[in-house]
Amino acid sequence: xxxxxxxxxxxxxxxxxxxxxxxxxxxxxxxxxxxxxxxxxxxxxxxxxxxxxxxxxxxxxxxxxxxxxxxxxxxxxxxxxxxxxxxxxxxxxxxxxxxxxxxxxxxxxxxxxxxxxxxxxxxxxxxxxxxxxxxxxxxxxxxxxxxxxxxxxxxxxxxxxxxxxxxxxxxxxxxxxxxxxxxxxxxxxxxxxxxxxxxxxxxxxxxxxxxxxxxxxxxxxxxxxxxxxxxxxxxxxxxxxxxxxxxxxxxxxxxxxxxxxxxxxxxxxxxxxxxxxxxxxxxxxxxxxxxxxxxxxxxxxxxxxxxxxxxxxxxxxxxxxxxxxxxxxxxxxxxxxxxxxxxxxxxxxxxxxxxxxxxxxxxxxxxxxxxxxxxxxxxxxxxxxxxxxxxxxxxxxxxxxxxxxxxxxxxxxxxxxxxxxxxxxxxxxxxxxxxxxxxxx
Length: 441
Prior knowledge:
By secondary structure, the chain is mostly helical. It has a single domain (about 5-440), classed as MFS general substrate transporter like domains (Growth Hormone, Chain: A, Up-down Bundle). It has 18 helices and two strands. The chain has helices at about 5-30, 35-40, 45-50, 55-75, 75-95, 100-115, 115-130, 135-165, 180-190, 190-200, 215-225, 225-260, 260-295, 300-320, 325-340, 340-350, 360-385, 395-435; strands at about 170, 175. It has a two-stranded antiparallel sheet. Helix 13 (about 260-295) packs parallel to helix 15 (about 325-340). The protein is globular. The chain starts with a helix and ends in a 7-residue tail after the last helix.
């Protein structure tokens, strides 16, 4: 790879990472606003869980498939610019609505816009990188999840505190905005700058020689390799669920368990998310790349198993920690472990997908694994708290047990995926090399 080519790759990955950071600021800041939204609209934790999960996932899944098709057939930069514009408007609108139904609808359209991001970014990065650098490039891009979450915690907590001290903000034609509404407005507006920045990148040349297949051919490929895709996708859904659960409920758990302010919680969790998650995702990407080059691509799945096995005891330690300091140490480790699948697992999926259908397969993955995670992750802890652990104030204990259970399920599923993945990985390479349907039969 020449210096200019390396610079182009680095530039592309960094800009896409910035887009991912912004997406997760917009997506995650709501977790710090749980109690103010409850107070405004008089809703329950379960309804808030649905707002954080189901609302986002509803059209995220529906629009994911056409977004993936557009990524494989249209200019990927243009698809991404449209998506960022949609979620920017929707996030800003979240701060202007006056009803829970209006907020729910706005979060639905955040999901519509963000449905374009991962298929476009995965496809562009995979066309820019080789086997030895794909994992680390994806780990940098995926680190945007955690940088964005950290910014949402730290910045969102500071914004909420400042807005609360200031009181309602009067805007022409809008009226008075409550503090939590002001936070949505503040994090939504930078999307305008992101649209302008992404509009300046170039869509990299596609490696696949063949034209993108229609959806029926994609489903035929997935059906032939259903063993690998099914177990790995469901495993990633379990890993994703525990990650989304932690992000959704760790702030409320800290506030209710230890009586801390949102600003203090946001600062502490911001450090845990940023330090722990970046450590986990970058190390997992580097280790997975090294193992894949030396021993085969299926070794990326071993990284998932290691992370999953370490998660349950730490999750239960966090659930029953007697002080905020002990809980923070445990949560730091949990975020590191929860981050590992977002580099090693995603790289394993990308390595399995033929280049000319990578966008559609990525969209199908998001329409299944991550939509399940987005719905189950935020919804499971309050359901457990209400039915098994004594109500809203036990959300921290419920979060610990749900995290441990989901990690255990994920490990079992990855074990089932490994032999099927090894066989399918060879077939996927033959397809990419030959670009003919016969290569997968």
